[in-house]
Amino acid sequence: MAMYVLSRRGQYSTSMLVGGLRCSSTWLRSISTGFREERDTFGPIQVPSDKLWGAQTQRSLQNFEIGGDRERMPEPIIRAFGILKKCAAKVNMEYGLDPTIGKAIMQAAQEVAEGKLNDHFPLVSVEFKDIIKIGRTHTQDATPLTLGQEFSGYSTQVKYGIDRITCTLPRMYQLAQGGTAVGTGLNTKKGFDVKIAAAVAEETSLPFVTAENKFEALSVRLLGDASASFEKNCVRGIQANKARISKLLHEKIGYDNAAAVAKKAHKEGSTLKEAALRLGVLTSEEFDKLVVPEKMIGPSD
C-alpha cells in the first residue's frame, strides 16, 4: 500500500504530512464510505475514504494505470516498507518532527507492517509420494517417477535458493535509507542513516546497519513478484489428477520395448501394450509382468 502520510526516503515536512494526517487510521474510524478531498500542487482531487494515501498517489493511480492487479508488490515487500516508514518517523521525531504527525505515521505504518504468508510448498512431496507419473526429458516422455519425487526436486530448489539468499544477508542487512534520491544524502540530517538502521534493527531483531556506500546500495533489485505469484496461483492448494497421470503413464512408456512396438504404437495412436499384443511380441500377462511402473521409479536391487 502506498501511503501519502509517509514521504519518500524517510524525510518528512509538515506541509507534506498535513493531508496524510487527516487520513490516518484514527481519523478513518468515523468514515466508512465515499471520498474525501486531498490537495497537492495540481489542486484538489477525490481520494477513497478508506485509503491511507493522499493526492499524489491518487493521481499516480489515475495517470499510470499500467499492469493493475497483475503487478502489485509482494506482501512481504509491503510489510518491509511499513517497518522502514515506522522507524523513519520515530527517528524524524528526534530531529524535530511534530510528535502528533509522527505518531500518526507510526500507527499507519504499523498497520502496513502486519500480515502473514502461508508456505505449503515442501509438504506436497510427502503427500504425492505414492502417485506415479511419466517423467519427461527434452520435452519427450521418458521413464516413470513418482509425483512426490518430482516435487522433492522443486522443494530442494527452493531450499537451495533460500541458502543462497542467506549467504547474501550480510550485504542485504545494509540499508540505503539516508542516501535519499541518488545516494548523496541531500535534505537529510547527519546521523539519520545510522539512527534509522538502528531503529529497524530494534524493530525486527535483525542486525541491520547503514550501508557503507549509499550509491552502491541504491542499485539493489528485489525479484520476488514471480515467486509470490507462482506460490499463490499454482502451488497453494495443488492437487494431483490421478486419473490423468495414470492414463498418460500407460499410453507411452518408451525406451524399454522393441522399436517395432514403439513405432506401431506411435503410428496407430495406441498404447505400447496394445501394439505389443497386435504384433504378437508379448501376451497380455507377459506385458503386465514385465512392465511394472512401480519397479521403474528407482534403482534396481
TrEMBL record:
Pfam family, one: FumaraseC_C
Name of protein: Fumarate lyase, N-terminal
MF annotations from Gene Ontology: fumarate hydratase activity
Fumarate lyase N-terminal domain span: 125-220
GO biological process: fumarate metabolic process; malate metabolic process; tricarboxylic acid cycle
Gene3D superfamilies on file: Fumarase/aspartase (C-terminal domain), Fumarase/aspartase (Central domain), Fumarase/aspartase (N-terminal domain)
The keyword Transmembrane is assigned to this record: no
